[in-house]
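Lab notebook page, bench 4
Experiment: in silico fold of construct C2
Operator: M.H.
Input chain length: 269 residues
Purpose: comparison with the prior construct
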Amino acid sequence: MAFLTVDCFSEVLHMSVNLSVIIPQNISIINPVNGGQFTPPYPVLYLLHGYNGDHTVWERRTSVERYASDKGIIVVMPAAHLSFYSDMAIGFRYWTFISQELPKICRDLFPHMTADPMKTFAAGLSMGGYGALKLALAFPERFRAAASLSGAVDVAALAERIREEAKGEPNAFDPVYGNRPVRGSGDDLFHLAKEAAQKGGRLPKLYQWCGRQDFLYQDNLRLRDFLTDHGYDLTFEEADGDHQWKYWDTGIERVLEWIQEILKKDEGK
């Protein structure tokens, strides 16, 4: 595998942006850092960071590069700062950047990357778990599957809780959503999931993991039940645990295995 740090320009954000990218490198000799020889075009996983994270955090806190080494998949890790993967009320259009511009940038920079929706995936933790599911539910025709680890999957309820705790003081959601309602909007996973199901097209496979002691556990249970009721192919897994990297390190290995299982099943059809 090759590990790349990419500095490029975003026309949407009007500034330079940063990406960390893991990409297969075909090496003929047996070695401990590359899991084999792979045939392009390569599947792609957009791997999103959580709140307080950036494009480097997955590489620094987990063994994602090692886990990906024998999968033959490109892993794109962008920075979206504290945007909650939204077009911010006060800030930048990170949702437009992540959902529209970033795939185009990556296809230009990495010609061996697939353009096939059936080999395109999203995953993330916490805020990034929300962002990954948002991508797949907003654009089911562009994503084969998406995975959330300890996801902030009910941002409407989370925003209400944080605003109430702030007691009128500035809080994390003010610059993201301003005064606009979240429930029933394009930022609401429940709304997006219902819309996608009602359209009757292909729905993405989904994966959720959350620790039982996580402060987001009940939100994840609500989304699990909602997705199941609306006919989604959902894999839901849980274990004892709270909101920590030691669980997400194990989790991203499991997600990569889950993606590989999907690809193998698709190839066998």
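Observations: The chain has nine helices and eight strands. The CA atoms of residues 15 and 82 lie 16 Å apart.
Next step: discuss at group meeting.
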